[in-house]
Design brief:
The complex is a heterodimer of chains A (380) and B (289). Chain A has 380 residues and is of the alpha+beta class. Chain A is 37% helix and 27% strand. In chain A, the strands form four sheets. In chain A, strands 7, 8, 9, 10, 11 and 12 form a six-stranded antiparallel β-sheet that branches. In chain A, strands 13-15-14-16-17-18 form a six-stranded mixed β-sheet, with helices on both faces. In chain A, helix 10 runs parallel beside helix 11 and helix 11 packs parallel to helix 12. The longest helix of chain A is centred in the middle third of the chain and has 20 residues. Chain B is an alpha/beta fold. Chain B has nine helices and 14 strands. In chain B, the strands form two sheets. Chain B has a seven-stranded mixed β-sheet, sandwiched between helices. Chain B has a seven-stranded mixed β-sheet with strand order 9-8-11-10-12-13-14, sandwiched between helices. In chain B, a hairpin with a 3-residue loop joins strand 8 and strand 9. In chain B, helix 3 runs parallel beside helix 4 and helix 6 runs parallel beside helix 7. The chains are: A alpha+beta (380), B alpha/beta (289). The interface between A and B is large, with 48 and 56 residues.
Chain lengths: 380, 289
């Protein structure tokens, strides 16, 4: 779960990591209420789940309340890379002397945390790695609760961080590493990490990505999970414990399956034949007919979907439950073309149920045959 | 002799008193696996399906000379249960749960290596040597005994493959569920040497998917050490970037790291036969047999 910036700042504050302080607002009225609390000039930042908001005009400054209201309203009415802005984060503008970069992330290759630091910041880290490798240090951290002195010394020596900042930097790194471990982060990134006019280090922008599988340990964060997506079908699926994955905006096929691998294989074969999947839904294991009917209704709500491909290799998932789910949801999905492949537990019972349904179900025996049927129906 | 589990495996089931634990213990027994003990803290002294239950792995191991354990415990208890099995020195530990925090797996992965025990999974169906024994929840009737070794990050793609093989009269030596998480206990490269040394294995099938770099690491290992033919399938070629495809580990970074293309290129360079689909795996096996 990728936190919005203001949420990342809240986490930093809770650990007393020096960071930008500010307030959030979702409407012009809320901005008005904040006016008395602010010291001008202020910065107004769009809270959206995408990079490049600065270039898109999502970060603006204001010298007084009148300007604050105009600019905030402007940003709140904006769409950045198709994402509507629901919230702004407003804080005192900081005079920046230097911009740097710091992050802890998970290195899947070595299965260890990795620290990346650069005395250059404010731009994409891959750009820095390419253009200024001398100013960047990347070091694997031996698994354990502490960040060793030698790791930090290596980073300082490699990047030539100026002596006056070194002590602050050590403390800063240790605190961010504690956040990385305690909050189950996949990524804890500060970009830019700035030095202000007084020579103090501070997080001006932060990205925190928390492992979804660990959210049960962080109920105070999980609460905000739904504010991150604007896709109502993702949210509806989540409420039934299904995973709904938007694939290609321009597609017309929905894939429903009972496992991540099977979903990927179905999409691969369909795409290879020149067709496009617009969304996929993972039922997980052991879904009942009631739940399967819900799943069908959810994908049918996507107006792009004209064809639903149900591809089941049932182990814990029973084919008769799948068939029952199709039967129960027919009135909601009758406008859509249905191609169904059932394999595994109770396959014959499932097929018998489907054969009693009057309507144009296309029953196929195998994944390949299913993709063939999809192609034939679309004259491909 | 199969390398991970066989007729002489003496298996512990951790979490045997739970609904899944009991159901799959029954299935494993029916398949002929020697389940010698169960462990559920607080339920010591009871029995499940005639199998004695203990409070600790240590007691179960000492009383029954167990040499493997399978964990049917929920993800939030996986760390504690696996830690106990590792520190007791059980040489083979198979974990099933989907949804284990990645920081927990990061610690367990390194701990198992330090302690010299083999950890498989999580987010895995377990391990099966068809006709001999199974530890996990796989539907065993779709497997058949034979000479092809299979390891897979995905359960469903693996099921599809072994079932196609069975219907075409081709069986498996050992099938390992590497698991779909970001950090597996054992990687493809960790398991490859066992298939290479296994007398029952003639061909190795690797079913990978997008995300991470285990397939690239395996490619390097294959190039340097594997003499048997290897077939690989990489699922997720058409998955959008920066989107988890269900498995926690199946995600391509925004900068393109973990792409199917990079994996296929590395494997192809190492002389691996690339399959386009599960059916294509079957075609390649037939060609190589």
């Amino acid at each position: 779960m990728k936190l919005l910036e203001y949420k990342a700042h809240e986490v930093f504050s809770a650990y007393r990591l020096p960071c930008m302080h500010g307030y959030t607002a979702s409407t012009a009225d809320e901005v008005k209420d904040l006016a008395g609390l602010l010291t001008y000039p202020v910065v107004i930042k769009a809270q959206v789940q995408t990079g490049g908001r600065g270039k898109a005009g999502g970060i603006q400054f204001a010298e007084d309340t009148a300007e604050l209201l105009t600019r905030s309203t402007e940003i709140l009415n904006m769409k950045i890379k198709d994402l509507p802005v629901h919230k702004v984060f407003i804080g005192q503008k900081v005079e920046v002397a230097t911009e740097m970069y710091l992050s802890f992330t998970l290195d899947r290759k070595s299965k260890q945390p990795v620290l990346i630091f650069s005395t250059e910041g404010g731009v994409d880290i891959n750009e820095i790695a390419e253009n200024n490798p001398d100013k960047l240090a990347k070091v694997l951290i031996p698994t354990g609760p502490d960040l060793s002195d030698f790791v930090l010394q290596y980073v300082i020596d490699k990047t030539g961080l100026e002596p006056a900042l070194q002590d602050q930097f050590r403390t800063f790194c240790r605190t961010l590493y504690t956040i990385f471990l305690e909050q189950d982060c996949l990524l804890a990134e500060i970009n830019p990490l700035i030095v202000d006019q007084a020579g103090t280090l501070m997080a001006l922008d932060g990205k925190i990505d928390i492992d979804d599988n660990a959210l049960y340990r962080h109920p105070e964060i999980k609460e905000f999970r739904d504010e991150i997506t604007d896709n109502p079908l993702v949210l509806e699926a989540r409420s039934f414990d299904f995973l709904y994955i938007p694939i290609q905006e321009s597609g017309n096929i929905a894939v429903i399956s009972n496992g991540s691998g099977m979903i990927m294989s179905s999409i691969d074969l369909i795409s290879k034949r020149g067709m496009q999947v617009t969304c996929a839904l993972d039922l997980g294991g052991g879904a009942t007919s009631e739940r399967i009917a819900e799943a069908l209704c959810i994908v049918a709500k996507n107006p792009r979907v004209d064809t639903i491909f149900i591809n089941i290799f049932g182990g814990i998932t029973r084919c008769d439950e799948i068939a029952g789910g199709v039967k129960n949801s027919l009135e909601y999905i009758s406008q859509k073309r249905l191609v169904i492949r059932l394999e595994g537990t109770n396959k014959e019972i499932g097929l018998d149920i489907l054969r009693t349904i009057s309507g144009d179900l296309e029953l196929v025996d195998g994944l390949y045959e299913g993709v063939d049927a999809l192609a034939q129906g679309m004259n491909i | 002799m199969s390398f991970f589990i066989d007729t002489d495996t003496r298996l512990i089931v951790q979490g045997i008193t739970g609904r899944e634990g009991t159901f799959h213990t029954e299935q494993m027994l029916a398949y002929g696996t020697q389940v010698v003990a169960g462990v559920t803290p607080g339920k010591g002294g009871t029995e499940v399906l005639g199998i004695p239950v203990y409070n600790t792995v240590r007691e179960a191991q000492e009383r029954h000379d167990a040499n493997a354990t399978v964990l049917f415990v929920p993800p939030r208890f996986l760390y504690g249960a696996a830690y106990e099995a590792i520190m007791t020195g059980i040489p083979l530990i198979m974990t099933i749960a989907e949804g284990t925090p990645v920081h927990d797996m990061m610690r367990l992965h390194h701990l198992a290596k330090e302690q010299g025990v083999r950890l498989i999974g999580p987010n895995s169906f377990g391990v099966i040597s068809p006709g001999k024994a199974k530890a996990g929840f796989m539907a065993h009737r779709i497997f058949a005994e034979g000479r092809v070794g299979v390891m897979s990050r995905s359960a469903t793609n693996c099921y599809e493959t072994v079932y196609l093989m069975k219907r075409n009269g081709i069986g498996q030596s050992t099938v390992v569920g590497v698991g779909g998480d970001m950090i597996p206990g054992s990687t493809f490269a960790d398991i490859l040497p066992f298939f290479e040394a296994d007398e029952q294995t003639d061909i190795i099938v690797l079913i990978g998917e997008i995300g991470g770099s285990e397939e690239e690491i395996a490619a390097q290992y294959i190039q340097e050490h594997i003499t048997k033919p290897v077939i690989a399938l990489i699922a997720g070629k058409n998955a959008p970037k920066d989107t988890s495809m269900g498995h926690a580990g199946a995600i391509v970074s925004p900068n393109g790291e973990g792409s199917a293309e990079s994996k296929e290129t590395a494997l192809r360079t190492a002389g691996v036969h690339i399959a386009e689909s599960t059916e294509d795996i079957l075609r390649l096996i037939k060609k190589l047999l």
